[in-house]
Amino acid sequence: MNEKVELLMQRLDVTRKGAKRIANIIDAGVEILRTEGFTALTKRRIAKRLGISDGNVSYYFPTRESLWKGVIEYELKTYYEKHYGSRKESDDDPMGRFDEFVRLWFQEYEDRELRIFFAQLLAFAEVSEFVARQRDEIYQTFYDETESRISALNPGLPDDELQTRTALVMAMLEGLHAVTAFKPDLMNSSTDFQEQLVSQVKAIACGQMHAHDVPVDH
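Above: the chain's sequence. Below: its structure in C-alpha cell form.
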C-alpha cells in the first residue's frame, strides 16, 4: 500500500475500506490535475467523478489545500520511485554521481506525465500562496541535491561560490522544460546536444565555465 496512504490511515484511524477510499480519491485527483489543472481539483469534482458525496471526500481531506497536498505528495512519491528508486551510487566517485544525476534529467523530461505535473505546479504557484509553498519545498530539495553533488566535486569551495554554481546548473537543467516542449526532436535524436549540455553543466559545476564564458551568437 502507498506509504502516504498508510500514514494517513494511522492519523485518521481508518479501516482498510477507508484506505481504499483515500486511494480512489487521490487517483481521481491526480487525473483531474493532469488533465484540467489545480482550479478543477476540488472535492466536489472528485465526489462527482467517484459517485460519492462531498462529505465522503471531506472526511479525509477537510480543506481544498489538504486535498492538493495529498495529490502533490502522491505525484512526488511516484516521481522519486520511478526515477531514483533503483539508483546505486558510490560516494567514492563524485564525478560519476554528478554525471548520472545530470543524465537523469534527460530521462525525466521524456516523462510526459511528469512534465504536465510540474507545468501545472509552476503555473498555479503564481496565483496560490499555498501551491507556491509546495513548489518552494520541492525546489529546495532539488537545490540541496544539486548542491551536495557540486560540493562533493569541489571540497572546501566557499559557500557563496557553491551557491552560485548550484543556481547556474539548476537554471541550465530547468531550461530543458522549454527545450523538450519546443524542440522534442533535439532531445530525442541528438546525442551531440545532450553531450554538449552535460559537458557545459560539468564545467560550471567544476568552476571551469561561468555565465559570461558561454558563447553567444550575434
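The domain at 3-69 is CATH 1.10.10.60 (Arc Repressor Mutant, subunit A).
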